[in-house]
Amino acid sequence: MVDFKKSKMNGFSYKEWNDYFSRNDKQKLKIDFSQEENLSETVKKRIFPSIREFQRGEGSDGGYLMKTVECFAVRHKVPEYKGAMRWFVREENQHSTYLKTYMDFHHIQAKESPFLDRVFRKLRHLGGIRCEVTVLVTAEMIALTYYDALSKNTDSAVLKSICAQMLHDEIPHVMFQSYTLSHFKNNLPDKWIRIILMEATLLFVWGAFHNVYRAGGYDFGTFLKENMGYLHQSMELTDRKPVMPG
Ligand SMILES: [Fe+2]
Ligand SMILES: [Fe+2]
Protein backbone atom coordinates (compact mmCIF):
# COMPACT_ATOMS: atom_id res chain seq x y z
CA MET A 1 0.00 0.00 0.00
CA VAL A 2 1.23 3.51 -0.82
CA ASP A 3 2.10 5.60 2.25
CA PHE A 4 0.84 9.15 1.61
CA LYS A 5 2.65 10.52 4.66
CA LYS A 6 6.01 9.99 2.93
CA SER A 7 5.06 12.19 -0.03
CA LYS A 8 6.29 15.78 -0.21
CA MET A 9 2.96 16.66 -1.87
CA ASN A 10 1.34 16.55 1.58
CA GLY A 11 2.51 20.07 2.29
CA PHE A 12 1.47 21.48 -1.11
CA SER A 13 -0.52 24.72 -1.33
CA TYR A 14 -2.90 25.20 -4.31
CA LYS A 15 -0.17 27.20 -6.06
CA GLU A 16 2.11 24.16 -5.78
CA TRP A 17 -0.70 21.87 -6.97
CA ASN A 18 -1.09 24.08 -10.04
CA ASP A 19 2.63 23.77 -10.73
CA TYR A 20 2.53 20.00 -10.22
CA PHE A 21 -0.42 19.47 -12.61
CA SER A 22 1.13 21.65 -15.29
CA ARG A 23 4.42 19.67 -15.03
CA ASN A 24 2.56 16.36 -15.05
CA ASP A 25 0.60 17.39 -18.15
CA LYS A 26 3.86 17.30 -20.12
CA GLN A 27 4.38 13.63 -19.22
CA LYS A 28 1.47 12.09 -21.06
CA LEU A 29 1.54 8.42 -21.88
CA LYS A 30 2.44 7.48 -25.43
CA ILE A 31 0.46 4.35 -26.21
CA ASP A 32 2.22 1.95 -28.57
CA PHE A 33 0.09 -0.89 -29.93
CA SER A 34 2.83 -2.30 -32.21
CA GLN A 35 3.41 -5.31 -29.91
CA GLU A 36 -0.20 -5.68 -28.73
CA GLU A 37 -1.74 -9.09 -29.33
CA ASN A 38 -5.35 -10.19 -29.29
CA LEU A 39 -6.73 -11.10 -25.90
CA SER A 40 -8.47 -14.42 -25.31
CA GLU A 41 -12.27 -14.33 -25.02
CA THR A 42 -11.97 -15.40 -21.37
CA VAL A 43 -9.74 -12.44 -20.54
CA LYS A 44 -11.92 -10.02 -22.52
CA LYS A 45 -15.04 -11.18 -20.67
CA ARG A 46 -13.24 -10.73 -17.37
CA ILE A 47 -11.66 -7.30 -17.81
CA PHE A 48 -13.83 -5.23 -20.16
CA PRO A 49 -17.01 -4.87 -18.05
CA SER A 50 -14.97 -3.05 -15.40
CA ILE A 51 -12.83 -1.12 -17.92
CA ARG A 52 -16.05 0.18 -19.57
CA GLU A 53 -17.35 1.26 -16.15
CA PHE A 54 -14.12 3.03 -15.19
CA GLN A 55 -13.71 4.60 -18.65
CA ARG A 56 -17.01 6.41 -18.22
CA GLY A 57 -16.30 7.31 -14.59
CA GLU A 58 -12.94 8.92 -15.42
CA GLY A 59 -14.42 11.38 -17.93
CA SER A 60 -16.32 14.54 -17.00
CA ASP A 61 -17.08 17.95 -18.50
CA GLY A 62 -16.62 19.40 -15.02
CA GLY A 63 -19.51 21.89 -15.48
CA TYR A 64 -21.23 21.49 -12.12
CA LEU A 65 -17.92 20.80 -10.40
CA MET A 66 -16.39 24.09 -11.59
CA LYS A 67 -19.36 26.09 -10.21
CA THR A 68 -18.76 24.61 -6.75
CA VAL A 69 -15.00 25.20 -7.18
CA GLU A 70 -15.67 28.90 -7.83
CA CYS A 71 -17.65 29.23 -4.55
CA PHE A 72 -14.93 27.44 -2.56
CA ALA A 73 -12.15 29.57 -4.09
CA VAL A 74 -13.97 32.79 -3.12
CA ARG A 75 -14.97 31.64 0.37
CA HIS A 76 -11.50 30.40 1.29
CA LYS A 77 -9.63 33.10 -0.65
CA VAL A 78 -7.75 30.54 -2.75
CA PRO A 79 -8.14 31.68 -6.39
CA GLU A 80 -5.40 29.19 -7.42
CA TYR A 81 -7.82 26.34 -6.66
CA LYS A 82 -9.75 27.05 -9.86
CA GLY A 83 -6.67 26.52 -12.03
CA ALA A 84 -5.68 23.39 -10.12
CA MET A 85 -9.16 21.89 -10.56
CA ARG A 86 -9.16 22.70 -14.28
CA TRP A 87 -5.88 20.77 -14.59
CA PHE A 88 -7.40 17.95 -12.55
CA VAL A 89 -10.49 17.64 -14.81
CA ARG A 90 -8.21 17.67 -17.85
CA GLU A 91 -6.09 14.89 -16.39
CA GLU A 92 -9.16 12.75 -15.61
CA ASN A 93 -10.43 13.19 -19.15
CA GLN A 94 -7.02 12.05 -20.38
CA HIS A 95 -7.45 8.90 -18.26
CA SER A 96 -10.79 8.27 -19.91
CA THR A 97 -9.14 8.69 -23.33
CA TYR A 98 -6.37 6.17 -22.47
CA LEU A 99 -8.99 3.54 -21.61
CA LYS A 100 -11.11 4.40 -24.66
CA THR A 101 -8.06 3.96 -26.93
CA TYR A 102 -7.45 0.53 -25.42
CA MET A 103 -11.13 -0.42 -25.83
CA ASP A 104 -11.14 0.80 -29.44
CA PHE A 105 -8.13 -1.38 -30.29
CA HIS A 106 -10.02 -4.42 -29.01
CA HIS A 107 -13.33 -3.31 -30.64
CA ILE A 108 -15.12 -2.78 -27.33
CA GLN A 109 -17.95 -0.24 -27.26
CA ALA A 110 -18.11 2.45 -24.57
CA LYS A 111 -20.89 2.12 -22.02
CA GLU A 112 -23.61 4.78 -22.31
CA SER A 113 -24.55 5.20 -18.68
CA PRO A 114 -22.98 2.71 -16.26
CA PHE A 115 -24.75 2.15 -12.95
CA LEU A 116 -21.92 3.18 -10.61
CA ASP A 117 -21.15 6.28 -12.66
CA ARG A 118 -24.84 7.34 -12.52
CA VAL A 119 -24.98 6.85 -8.74
CA PHE A 120 -21.71 8.73 -8.19
CA ARG A 121 -22.76 11.66 -10.38
CA LYS A 122 -26.09 11.94 -8.48
CA LEU A 123 -24.30 11.82 -5.12
CA ARG A 124 -21.76 14.44 -6.21
CA HIS A 125 -24.55 16.82 -7.17
CA LEU A 126 -26.34 16.53 -3.80
CA GLY A 127 -24.22 19.25 -2.24
CA GLY A 128 -21.40 21.70 -2.82
CA ILE A 129 -17.70 21.18 -3.26
CA ARG A 130 -17.36 19.13 -0.10
CA CYS A 131 -19.85 16.58 -1.39
CA GLU A 132 -18.22 16.55 -4.85
CA VAL A 133 -14.73 16.01 -3.47
CA THR A 134 -15.83 13.40 -0.92
CA VAL A 135 -17.35 11.27 -3.70
CA LEU A 136 -14.45 11.90 -6.09
CA VAL A 137 -11.79 10.89 -3.59
CA THR A 138 -13.70 7.71 -2.71
CA ALA A 139 -13.60 6.64 -6.37
CA GLU A 140 -9.93 7.62 -6.64
CA MET A 141 -8.91 5.55 -3.63
CA ILE A 142 -10.72 2.51 -5.07
CA ALA A 143 -8.99 3.15 -8.40
CA LEU A 144 -5.64 2.47 -6.68
CA THR A 145 -6.42 -1.20 -6.02
CA TYR A 146 -8.38 -1.54 -9.26
CA TYR A 147 -5.57 -0.47 -11.62
CA ASP A 148 -3.06 -2.48 -9.60
CA ALA A 149 -5.22 -5.61 -10.00
CA LEU A 150 -6.08 -4.88 -13.64
CA SER A 151 -2.42 -4.58 -14.63
CA LYS A 152 -1.86 -8.15 -13.37
CA ASN A 153 -4.79 -9.59 -15.39
CA THR A 154 -3.00 -9.79 -18.75
CA ASP A 155 0.47 -9.75 -20.34
CA SER A 156 -0.55 -6.71 -22.40
CA ALA A 157 2.27 -4.16 -22.19
CA VAL A 158 -0.16 -1.44 -23.29
CA LEU A 159 -2.65 -2.19 -20.52
CA LYS A 160 0.18 -2.38 -17.97
CA SER A 161 1.50 1.02 -19.13
CA ILE A 162 -1.99 2.56 -18.87
CA CYS A 163 -2.47 1.14 -15.35
CA ALA A 164 0.97 2.41 -14.29
CA GLN A 165 0.12 5.91 -15.57
CA MET A 166 -3.23 5.81 -13.75
CA LEU A 167 -1.55 4.85 -10.47
CA HIS A 168 1.10 7.53 -10.97
CA ASP A 169 -1.62 10.19 -11.41
CA GLU A 170 -4.28 8.93 -8.97
CA ILE A 171 -2.03 8.85 -5.89
CA PRO A 172 -1.51 12.66 -6.07
CA HIS A 173 -5.24 13.08 -6.76
CA VAL A 174 -6.10 11.45 -3.42
CA MET A 175 -3.71 13.84 -1.63
CA PHE A 176 -5.04 16.83 -3.58
CA GLN A 177 -8.70 16.09 -2.71
CA SER A 178 -7.78 15.30 0.91
CA TYR A 179 -6.10 18.71 1.09
CA THR A 180 -9.35 20.37 -0.03
CA LEU A 181 -11.32 18.42 2.59
CA SER A 182 -8.86 19.65 5.24
CA HIS A 183 -10.39 23.14 4.78
CA PHE A 184 -13.58 21.88 6.47
CA LYS A 185 -14.24 20.78 10.05
CA ASN A 186 -14.12 17.00 9.99
CA ASN A 187 -16.18 15.80 12.93
CA LEU A 188 -17.10 12.23 13.76
CA PRO A 189 -20.37 12.23 11.72
CA ASP A 190 -18.43 13.51 8.66
CA LYS A 191 -15.96 10.66 9.07
CA TRP A 192 -18.77 8.13 9.38
CA ILE A 193 -20.30 9.39 6.13
CA ARG A 194 -16.97 8.77 4.38
CA ILE A 195 -16.67 5.29 5.93
CA ILE A 196 -20.23 4.30 4.95
CA LEU A 197 -19.80 5.65 1.40
CA MET A 198 -16.53 3.75 1.04
CA GLU A 199 -17.92 0.49 2.43
CA ALA A 200 -21.06 0.61 0.25
CA THR A 201 -18.99 1.32 -2.87
CA LEU A 202 -16.51 -1.44 -2.03
CA LEU A 203 -19.33 -3.96 -1.71
CA PHE A 204 -20.68 -2.97 -5.12
CA VAL A 205 -17.24 -2.98 -6.80
CA TRP A 206 -16.30 -6.36 -5.30
CA GLY A 207 -19.68 -7.83 -6.24
CA ALA A 208 -19.41 -6.62 -9.83
CA PHE A 209 -15.68 -7.00 -10.55
CA HIS A 210 -14.28 -9.53 -8.07
CA ASN A 211 -13.00 -11.68 -10.95
CA VAL A 212 -10.60 -8.91 -11.98
CA TYR A 213 -9.45 -8.46 -8.40
CA ARG A 214 -9.01 -12.18 -7.82
CA ALA A 215 -6.99 -12.58 -11.04
CA GLY A 216 -4.91 -9.59 -9.87
CA GLY A 217 -4.01 -11.29 -6.58
CA TYR A 218 -6.63 -9.80 -4.23
CA ASP A 219 -9.12 -11.65 -2.08
CA PHE A 220 -12.00 -9.86 -0.34
CA GLY A 221 -9.94 -9.46 2.84
CA THR A 222 -6.94 -7.77 1.17
CA PHE A 223 -9.25 -5.69 -1.06
CA LEU A 224 -11.13 -4.39 2.00
CA LYS A 225 -8.03 -3.86 4.12
CA GLU A 226 -6.14 -1.93 1.46
CA ASN A 227 -9.04 0.34 0.54
CA MET A 228 -9.97 1.07 4.14
CA GLY A 229 -6.27 1.73 4.79
CA TYR A 230 -6.32 4.40 2.07
CA LEU A 231 -9.46 5.92 3.58
CA HIS A 232 -7.84 6.16 7.01
CA GLN A 233 -4.75 7.76 5.49
CA SER A 234 -6.93 10.27 3.64
CA MET A 235 -8.81 11.08 6.86
CA GLU A 236 -5.50 11.69 8.63
CA LEU A 237 -4.57 14.18 5.90
CA THR A 238 -7.91 15.97 6.26
CA ASP A 239 -7.23 16.48 9.97
CA ARG A 240 -4.22 18.65 9.11
CA LYS A 241 -4.54 22.42 8.93
CA PRO A 242 -4.44 23.71 5.31
CA VAL A 243 -1.47 25.74 4.08
CA MET A 244 -2.49 29.41 4.25
CA PRO A 245 -1.98 31.46 1.08
CA GLY A 246 0.62 34.14 1.35
FE1 LIG B 1 -8.42 9.15 -13.09
FE1 LIG C 1 -8.33 10.86 -10.20
TrEMBL record:
This is Ferritin-like domain-containing protein. InterPro entries: Ferritin-like_SF, RNR-like. One of its GO terms (molecular function) is oxidoreductase activity.
